[in-house]
Design goal:
Low-confidence stretches: none
InterPro entries: Endoribo_LPSP/chorism_mut-like, RutC-like_sf
Mean pLDDT: 96
Largest sheet: 5 strands, mixed
Organism: Halomonas tibetensis
Pfam families: YjgF_endoribonc
Number of strands: 7
Order of helices and strands: HEEEEHEHEE
Number of helices: 3
Strand order of the largest sheet: 1-2-7-5-6
Radius of gyration: 15 Å
Protein name: RidA family protein
Helix content: 25-40%
Shape: globular
Strand content: 25-35%
């Protein structure tokens, strides 16, 4: 039997959440051929922002990484939905964009987004490595500390 994304996440000692309800007029994922575009996810569960505030003020680097990991888990929920839970349909992660709500003077934005990148690598091995951009921003939806989006290659 093929492993599910939910089981792979559980093997990391984590839980796959429900797909968060979009905070705007968009879908959690969209497919174009074999590319799956996962909409940006903030660090939330059940509509509540887990880490509201700025990294470098309210949160330190390690907490920022946890916020990024929470975003990645939300992305995994969308990915699981798109491939009907079948991890064998995931070819690789192509790209990730990460946004960190930062306090002035905080410069470790790429290290924060490693919280999401490291989870993808733990789940998919070398196929989880991706091209990436990490950007510090003044604010994010719901005052979330982190938002992450990604693109995956999938097969039928």
């Amino acid at each position: 039997m093929t492993q599910t994304i939910e089981a792979a996440v559980a093997a990391q000692g984590l839980t796959l959440p429900a797909i968060p309800r979009p905070r705007g007029a968009f879908l959690p994922w969209s497919r174009l051929g074999n590319q799956l575009f996962l909409a940006g996810q903030i660090c939330e569960r059940g509509g509540e922002v887990l880490y509201p505030g700025k990294v470098g003020a309210e949160f330190d680097l390690e907490t920022g990484k946890l916020a990024a990991q929470a975003c990645a888990l939300n992305l995994m929920a969308s990915l699981s939905d798109a491939v009907e839970g079948d991890m064998s349909r995931v070819v690789r992660c192509i790209r990730m964009n990460g946004f960190v709500n930062v306090a002035p003077g905080f410069h470790d934005v790429p290290l924060v987004i490693n919280g999401a990148s490291e989870l993808f690598i733990a789940l998919f091995g070398e196929h989880g490595r991706h091209a990436r951009t990490a950007i510090g921003v003044a604010t994010l939806p719901g005052n979330a500390a982190v938002e992450v989006e990604s693109i995956f290659e999938i097969c039928d």
